[in-house]
Amino acid sequence: MTSMLSVLKKTTPIVMLAGAISCSTLTAASTVDEIKAKGTITVATEDNYRPFEFVQDGVSTGYDNELKALVEKESGIKLEQEIMPWAGILPGVQSGKFDMALSAVMVTDQRRKVFDFTTPTAASQTYFATKADSDIKSGKDLIGKTVGAETGSAFLLELKAYDKKLKDEHGEGVGKIVEYHGYPEAYQDLALGRLDAVVNTDITLRSLMEERPGVFSLGEPVGEPGYKAWAVKKGNEAVLKVVNDAMLKVRESGEMYRLQEKWLGAKNEDMPLDVN
Question: What's the pTM value of the predicted model, to 2 decimals?
Protein backbone atom coordinates (compact mmCIF):
# COMPACT_ATOMS: atom_id res chain seq x y z
CA MET A 1 0.00 0.00 0.00
CA THR A 2 1.26 3.46 -0.84
CA SER A 3 2.15 5.28 2.37
CA MET A 4 0.27 8.42 3.33
CA LEU A 5 3.61 10.24 3.27
CA SER A 6 4.00 9.52 -0.45
CA VAL A 7 0.47 10.79 -1.08
CA LEU A 8 1.29 13.95 0.83
CA LYS A 9 4.42 14.47 -1.24
CA LYS A 10 2.41 14.17 -4.44
CA THR A 11 -0.16 16.69 -3.27
CA THR A 12 1.79 19.34 -1.35
CA PRO A 13 -0.38 22.31 -2.44
CA ILE A 14 -3.46 20.29 -1.59
CA VAL A 15 -2.10 19.47 1.86
CA MET A 16 -1.79 23.19 2.48
CA LEU A 17 -5.45 23.58 1.55
CA ALA A 18 -6.42 20.70 3.81
CA GLY A 19 -4.50 22.37 6.61
CA ALA A 20 -6.42 25.54 5.96
CA ILE A 21 -9.63 23.63 6.63
CA SER A 22 -8.32 22.76 10.08
CA CYS A 23 -7.17 26.33 10.83
CA SER A 24 -10.64 27.77 11.30
CA THR A 25 -11.41 31.29 12.47
CA LEU A 26 -12.42 31.92 16.07
CA THR A 27 -16.04 32.19 15.02
CA ALA A 28 -15.89 28.83 13.21
CA ALA A 29 -14.03 27.27 16.16
CA SER A 30 -16.79 28.28 18.58
CA THR A 31 -19.33 26.73 16.20
CA VAL A 32 -17.21 23.58 16.10
CA ASP A 33 -17.30 23.56 19.88
CA GLU A 34 -21.09 23.84 19.74
CA ILE A 35 -21.27 20.90 17.33
CA LYS A 36 -19.08 18.82 19.60
CA ALA A 37 -21.17 19.79 22.62
CA LYS A 38 -24.37 18.86 20.79
CA GLY A 39 -22.76 15.67 19.55
CA THR A 40 -24.76 15.35 16.32
CA ILE A 41 -24.76 16.40 12.66
CA THR A 42 -27.77 15.79 10.43
CA VAL A 43 -27.04 14.03 7.13
CA ALA A 44 -29.00 12.69 4.16
CA THR A 45 -28.08 9.47 2.36
CA GLU A 46 -29.45 7.92 -0.82
CA ASP A 47 -31.55 4.80 -0.45
CA ASN A 48 -30.66 2.81 -3.59
CA TYR A 49 -27.26 3.55 -5.12
CA ARG A 50 -25.09 0.44 -5.02
CA PRO A 51 -22.33 -0.06 -3.99
CA PHE A 52 -22.10 3.34 -2.26
CA GLU A 53 -25.30 3.41 -0.23
CA PHE A 54 -28.39 1.24 -0.24
CA VAL A 55 -30.87 -0.48 2.06
CA GLN A 56 -30.73 -4.25 2.40
CA ASP A 57 -33.03 -6.22 4.69
CA GLY A 58 -34.07 -2.96 6.31
CA VAL A 59 -30.48 -1.96 7.13
CA SER A 60 -28.48 0.85 5.50
CA THR A 61 -25.26 -0.55 4.06
CA GLY A 62 -22.64 0.05 1.38
CA TYR A 63 -19.36 1.91 1.14
CA ASP A 64 -20.56 5.31 2.39
CA ASN A 65 -22.44 3.82 5.31
CA GLU A 66 -19.38 1.88 6.51
CA LEU A 67 -17.26 5.01 6.03
CA LYS A 68 -19.86 6.90 8.10
CA ALA A 69 -19.29 4.51 11.01
CA LEU A 70 -15.53 5.13 10.90
CA VAL A 71 -16.00 8.91 10.80
CA GLU A 72 -18.37 8.73 13.77
CA LYS A 73 -15.85 6.67 15.72
CA GLU A 74 -12.98 9.04 14.90
CA SER A 75 -14.91 12.28 15.55
CA GLY A 76 -17.08 11.21 18.47
CA ILE A 77 -20.00 12.87 16.65
CA LYS A 78 -23.16 10.99 15.66
CA LEU A 79 -24.20 11.53 12.05
CA GLU A 80 -27.99 11.48 12.37
CA GLN A 81 -29.08 10.01 9.08
CA GLU A 82 -32.19 10.27 6.94
CA ILE A 83 -32.43 7.76 4.09
CA MET A 84 -34.12 9.19 1.01
CA PRO A 85 -34.10 9.30 -2.82
CA TRP A 86 -31.30 11.26 -4.48
CA ALA A 87 -33.57 14.04 -5.80
CA GLY A 88 -34.11 15.49 -2.31
CA ILE A 89 -30.58 15.30 -0.94
CA LEU A 90 -28.68 18.27 -2.39
CA PRO A 91 -31.73 20.60 -2.26
CA GLY A 92 -32.13 19.57 1.39
CA VAL A 93 -28.51 20.50 2.16
CA GLN A 94 -28.77 23.77 0.27
CA SER A 95 -31.97 24.75 2.13
CA GLY A 96 -30.46 23.91 5.53
CA LYS A 97 -32.72 20.93 6.22
CA PHE A 98 -29.59 18.77 6.44
CA ASP A 99 -26.05 19.68 7.46
CA MET A 100 -24.45 17.37 4.92
CA ALA A 101 -25.05 15.07 1.99
CA LEU A 102 -23.49 11.81 3.13
CA SER A 103 -23.70 10.38 -0.34
CA ALA A 104 -21.59 9.68 -3.42
CA VAL A 105 -21.81 13.26 -4.71
CA MET A 106 -19.91 13.80 -7.96
CA VAL A 107 -17.71 16.89 -7.61
CA THR A 108 -18.33 19.31 -10.50
CA ASP A 109 -17.47 22.96 -11.17
CA GLN A 110 -21.16 23.84 -11.04
CA ARG A 111 -21.61 22.21 -7.64
CA ARG A 112 -18.51 23.91 -6.24
CA LYS A 113 -20.39 27.21 -6.56
CA VAL A 114 -22.93 26.16 -3.91
CA PHE A 115 -21.27 23.32 -1.97
CA ASP A 116 -18.00 22.58 -0.19
CA PHE A 117 -16.67 19.03 -0.22
CA THR A 118 -14.84 16.71 2.11
CA THR A 119 -11.66 15.02 1.01
CA PRO A 120 -12.77 12.76 -1.86
CA THR A 121 -14.23 9.38 -1.02
CA ALA A 122 -13.69 7.76 -4.44
CA ALA A 123 -12.41 8.33 -7.97
CA SER A 124 -14.91 7.71 -10.76
CA GLN A 125 -15.83 8.39 -14.37
CA THR A 126 -19.14 8.44 -16.21
CA TYR A 127 -19.72 5.56 -18.65
CA PHE A 128 -22.68 4.23 -20.57
CA ALA A 129 -24.09 0.72 -20.22
CA THR A 130 -26.25 -1.29 -22.61
CA LYS A 131 -27.94 -4.67 -22.74
CA ALA A 132 -25.42 -7.45 -23.13
CA ASP A 133 -26.54 -8.22 -26.69
CA SER A 134 -26.55 -4.58 -27.87
CA ASP A 135 -24.72 -3.49 -31.00
CA ILE A 136 -23.81 -0.20 -29.31
CA LYS A 137 -20.07 -0.40 -28.69
CA SER A 138 -18.74 3.17 -28.93
CA GLY A 139 -19.91 6.62 -27.93
CA LYS A 140 -20.65 7.40 -31.57
CA ASP A 141 -23.11 4.49 -31.58
CA LEU A 142 -25.33 6.49 -29.18
CA ILE A 143 -26.34 8.75 -32.06
CA GLY A 144 -30.09 8.45 -32.56
CA LYS A 145 -30.50 6.21 -29.50
CA THR A 146 -32.62 6.60 -26.35
CA VAL A 147 -30.44 7.06 -23.26
CA GLY A 148 -31.46 7.30 -19.60
CA ALA A 149 -29.97 9.16 -16.61
CA GLU A 150 -31.06 10.24 -13.14
CA THR A 151 -32.72 13.64 -12.71
CA GLY A 152 -30.47 16.16 -10.98
CA SER A 153 -27.37 14.00 -11.36
CA ALA A 154 -23.94 14.98 -12.67
CA PHE A 155 -24.30 12.07 -15.07
CA LEU A 156 -27.30 13.73 -16.73
CA LEU A 157 -25.27 16.89 -17.26
CA GLU A 158 -22.37 14.89 -18.68
CA LEU A 159 -24.74 13.05 -21.01
CA LYS A 160 -26.10 16.37 -22.27
CA ALA A 161 -22.56 17.66 -22.78
CA TYR A 162 -21.67 14.47 -24.65
CA ASP A 163 -24.78 14.86 -26.79
CA LYS A 164 -23.59 18.35 -27.74
CA LYS A 165 -20.14 16.95 -28.56
CA LEU A 166 -21.70 14.35 -30.87
CA LYS A 167 -23.72 17.06 -32.62
CA ASP A 168 -20.65 19.26 -33.01
CA GLU A 169 -18.55 16.43 -34.44
CA HIS A 170 -21.12 14.45 -36.41
CA GLY A 171 -24.05 16.77 -37.02
CA GLU A 172 -26.44 14.69 -34.92
CA GLY A 173 -26.57 13.40 -31.37
CA VAL A 174 -28.52 11.23 -28.97
CA GLY A 175 -32.04 10.58 -30.20
CA LYS A 176 -33.76 11.07 -26.82
CA ILE A 177 -32.67 11.59 -23.21
CA VAL A 178 -35.02 10.13 -20.58
CA GLU A 179 -34.77 11.28 -16.96
CA TYR A 180 -35.50 9.02 -13.97
CA HIS A 181 -36.00 9.67 -10.27
CA GLY A 182 -33.90 6.61 -9.47
CA TYR A 183 -31.58 4.24 -11.31
CA PRO A 184 -33.42 0.95 -10.56
CA GLU A 185 -36.26 2.04 -12.85
CA ALA A 186 -33.76 3.07 -15.54
CA TYR A 187 -32.03 -0.32 -15.36
CA GLN A 188 -35.39 -2.06 -15.61
CA ASP A 189 -36.27 -0.10 -18.75
CA LEU A 190 -32.85 -0.89 -20.19
CA ALA A 191 -33.34 -4.61 -19.58
CA LEU A 192 -36.81 -4.45 -21.17
CA GLY A 193 -35.52 -2.63 -24.24
CA ARG A 194 -37.27 0.67 -23.55
CA LEU A 195 -33.83 2.31 -23.38
CA ASP A 196 -30.80 1.72 -25.54
CA ALA A 197 -28.32 2.82 -22.88
CA VAL A 198 -27.97 4.26 -19.36
CA VAL A 199 -25.21 6.55 -18.08
CA ASN A 200 -23.80 6.32 -14.56
CA THR A 201 -20.47 6.09 -12.79
CA ASP A 202 -18.23 3.21 -13.85
CA ILE A 203 -18.13 1.90 -10.26
CA THR A 204 -21.90 1.60 -10.00
CA LEU A 205 -22.30 0.08 -13.46
CA ARG A 206 -19.69 -2.59 -12.69
CA SER A 207 -21.54 -3.36 -9.46
CA LEU A 208 -24.75 -3.69 -11.47
CA MET A 209 -23.10 -6.20 -13.81
CA GLU A 210 -21.84 -8.27 -10.90
CA GLU A 211 -25.32 -8.24 -9.41
CA ARG A 212 -26.99 -9.20 -12.73
CA PRO A 213 -24.39 -11.09 -14.76
CA GLY A 214 -25.04 -11.56 -18.47
CA VAL A 215 -27.78 -8.90 -18.58
CA PHE A 216 -25.80 -5.70 -19.16
CA SER A 217 -22.54 -4.64 -20.80
CA LEU A 218 -20.21 -1.73 -19.97
CA GLY A 219 -19.57 0.72 -22.80
CA GLU A 220 -17.16 3.64 -23.07
CA PRO A 221 -16.63 6.83 -21.03
CA VAL A 222 -18.90 9.78 -21.77
CA GLY A 223 -17.35 12.02 -19.12
CA GLU A 224 -13.97 13.06 -17.75
CA PRO A 225 -12.31 11.37 -14.74
CA GLY A 226 -13.47 12.89 -11.47
CA TYR A 227 -14.13 12.36 -7.78
CA LYS A 228 -16.96 11.71 -5.37
CA ALA A 229 -17.20 13.33 -1.93
CA TRP A 230 -19.64 14.27 0.82
CA ALA A 231 -21.04 17.81 0.53
CA VAL A 232 -22.03 20.67 2.84
CA LYS A 233 -23.61 24.02 2.00
CA LYS A 234 -20.91 26.42 0.86
CA GLY A 235 -19.48 28.32 3.82
CA ASN A 236 -20.54 25.76 6.43
CA GLU A 237 -16.96 25.56 7.68
CA ALA A 238 -17.72 24.11 11.10
CA VAL A 239 -19.47 20.98 9.85
CA LEU A 240 -16.88 20.56 7.10
CA LYS A 241 -14.04 20.80 9.61
CA VAL A 242 -15.49 18.27 12.07
CA VAL A 243 -16.23 15.71 9.37
CA ASN A 244 -13.14 16.34 7.25
CA ASP A 245 -10.71 16.17 10.16
CA ALA A 246 -12.09 12.73 11.01
CA MET A 247 -12.17 11.56 7.41
CA LEU A 248 -8.56 12.62 6.77
CA LYS A 249 -7.54 10.48 9.76
CA VAL A 250 -9.54 7.55 8.42
CA ARG A 251 -7.83 8.04 5.10
CA GLU A 252 -4.37 8.35 6.63
CA SER A 253 -4.88 5.13 8.61
CA GLY A 254 -5.63 3.25 5.40
CA GLU A 255 -9.15 2.30 6.53
CA MET A 256 -10.72 4.29 3.68
CA TYR A 257 -8.71 2.31 1.14
CA ARG A 258 -9.68 -0.96 2.82
CA LEU A 259 -13.35 -0.05 2.37
CA GLN A 260 -12.73 1.01 -1.22
CA GLU A 261 -11.22 -2.36 -2.02
CA LYS A 262 -14.12 -4.15 -0.30
CA TRP A 263 -16.96 -2.20 -1.92
CA LEU A 264 -15.52 -0.54 -5.04
CA GLY A 265 -13.05 -3.19 -6.14
CA ALA A 266 -9.97 -0.94 -6.14
CA LYS A 267 -8.00 1.41 -3.90
CA ASN A 268 -7.86 5.09 -4.91
CA GLU A 269 -4.70 6.02 -3.00
CA ASP A 270 -3.58 8.78 -5.39
CA MET A 271 -6.65 10.99 -4.95
CA PRO A 272 -5.97 14.64 -4.02
CA LEU A 273 -6.68 15.57 -0.41
CA ASP A 274 -8.83 18.56 -1.35
CA VAL A 275 -11.23 19.00 -4.29
CA ASN A 276 -12.73 22.41 -3.45
Answer: 0.76
